[in-house]
Amino acid sequence: MKKAVTKALVVLMALSIMVGLAACGKKTYEYVGAWKTTTASAQGAEVDINELGLALDMHILEDGKIMVVSAEKFGLGTWKEIDGGISITSGGESMDLKMADGKLQMTEPDSGLVMNFEKQQ
Hints:
Blueprint lengths: L1 H22 L9 E10 L2 E4 H4 L3 E5 L4 E6 L3 E9 L2 E6 L2 E8 L2 E5 L6 E6 L2
Antiparallel strand pairs: 1-2, 1-3, 1-9, 3-4, 4-5, 5-6, 6-7, 7-8, 8-9
């Protein structure tokens, strides 16, 4: 009986170690993937970005790079995870995007314009 309990404990410990080591692999960020602008708001008014023709696509890559694509421009940069969101850097400038209600929100500091990005499946 004692041998059976010891063997069971050894097996459980081995499984625990394997699960722990598997969890030590690459961290999967909830931010990695394709994001698309949906709405923007300023001074209490909200508009559908697509109706204005100002849609932006963001492609957040696992290697710390980011691509931003609009109808007229293409930009490259880097990103890193911060408390409650991400910080993107491009051309020497940085901007923080915060997660709220499952959306990444980019706030333009001068105008107060808030752009909402939704993750694409």
